Q: What sequence folds into this?
């Protein structure tokens, strides 16, 4: 029986270079003979059975929830196949107010975003991450729990009273795999903005300078809040070759580390 693979999370602000370097990392590790695959969040189910990833990707382009976004959530709620699943049944029963807060007319933006990201993550684990790990494949994931905890805290949710309890609940019941390490790309907002401008990529709802400054601090705060997971912060302001080498060394170490 093959030994289980490791989940390695690469996270941080947009413009940090995490997506480009994590893809390059997987390519190079695979060429070295490692069993490794890349994935990202929001996770889009290739079968189309779960639409949460597509809905979230549309959501990130909106400044405020639009009527068609709310309608898609309501359509999702009406999908009996989805709601009869053990996973969604667990979330319904154990995450306080999930249906009320996501599907009511008085939708609370930050809370609905958090619930949707957690739900999408559970589906990501069930359909992709856990099967890959069980088959001995190492998984490099671009964004995971650190993003939800940092972004939605920056939106105004309480980390201690709302976000961490949900994260701990879903993790403790095995619905979200705990990574071998979370590697956080720390980048100054000015550098991130310049990189984003250089790519010509359309800005998402969270990409303004004031938000990014608060977001950066909230990522840093996670190292004292998530006590059950390893957190490594990497200075991503420098040349990409230097950043890549630091990431490569950390990933190789944690892929080979014992539990």
A:
């Amino acid at each position: 029986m093959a030994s289980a693979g490791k989940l390695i999370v690469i996270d941080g602000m947009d413009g940090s270079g995490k997506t480009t370097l994590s893809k390059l990392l997987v390519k190079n590790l695979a060429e070295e003979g490692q069993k490794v695959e890349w994935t990202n969040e929001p996770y889009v189910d290739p079968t189309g059975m779960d639409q949460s990833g597509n809905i979230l990707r549309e959501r990130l382009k909106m400044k405020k929830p639009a009527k068609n976004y709310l309608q898609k959530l309501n359509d999702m709620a009406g999908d009996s196949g989805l709601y009869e699943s053990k996973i969604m049944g667990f979330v319904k029963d154990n995450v306080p107010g999930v249906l009320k807060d996501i599907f009511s007319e008085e939708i609370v933006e930050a809370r609905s975003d958090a619930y949707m990201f957690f739900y999408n993550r559970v589906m990501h684990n069930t359909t992709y991450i856990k099967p890959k790990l069980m088959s001995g494949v190492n998984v490099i994931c671009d964004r995971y729990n650190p993003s939800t905890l940092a972004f939605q805290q920056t939106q105004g949710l309480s980390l201690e009273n709302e976000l961490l309890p949900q994260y701990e609940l879903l993790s403790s019941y095995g619905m979200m795999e705990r990574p071998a390490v979370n590697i956080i790309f720390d980048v100054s907002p000015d550098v991130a903005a310049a990189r984003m401008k250089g790519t010509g990529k359309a800005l998402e709802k969270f990409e303004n300078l004031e938000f990014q400054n608060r977001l950066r601090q909230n990522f840093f705060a996670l190292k004292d809040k998530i006590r059950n997971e390893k957190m490594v912060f990497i200075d991503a302001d420098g040349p990409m070759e230097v950043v890549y080498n630091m990431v490569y060394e950390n990933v190789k170490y944690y892929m080979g580390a014992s539990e």
In short: Residues 7-256 form a domain with the Rossmann fold fold (CATH 3.40.50.300). The two ends are 18 Å apart (CA to CA).
